[in-house]
Amino acid sequence: MIEVEQLSKRYGSLPVLREVTLTVASGQLTTLIGTNGAGKTTLLRVLAGLTAPDGGSARLNGVDVVRRRTEAQAQLAFLPQAVRFHPALSARQLLRFYADLRATERRRIEPLLAEVGLEDAADRPSGQLSGGMAQRLGLALMLLPDAPILLLDEPGVSLDPTWRAQMVALLRAEADRGKTVFVTTHLLAEWQPVSDRMLRCEDGCILDTAPAPVPAILPTPAPTRTSATPPPSRAKPSAIPALVLCRQWLTTRCRCARSPEAG
Amino acid sequence: MPERWLSAPLVRATRTYARRELQTVVRNRFLHVFSLIMAGAGTLLVTLSGSDGSVPVALLQLVLYVVPLFALLMGVSAAHEELDERAFLFSQPVPRVAAVFGQWLALWLVLGLAQGLAVLPGLLTGRSVGALLQLWLYGVLLGGIFTAWGVALGYRTSDRARGVISGLLVWFGALVLYDLAALMLSHVGFIQRVPELWVALLMVNPLDAVRLSALTSMQDVPFTTPEGSRLVEVWLSVLPLWLIALTGFWTALPLWLTSRRLDHIEV
Question: Which residues of chain A have a CB within 8 Å of the CB of B85?
Answer without folding.
Answer: 83-86
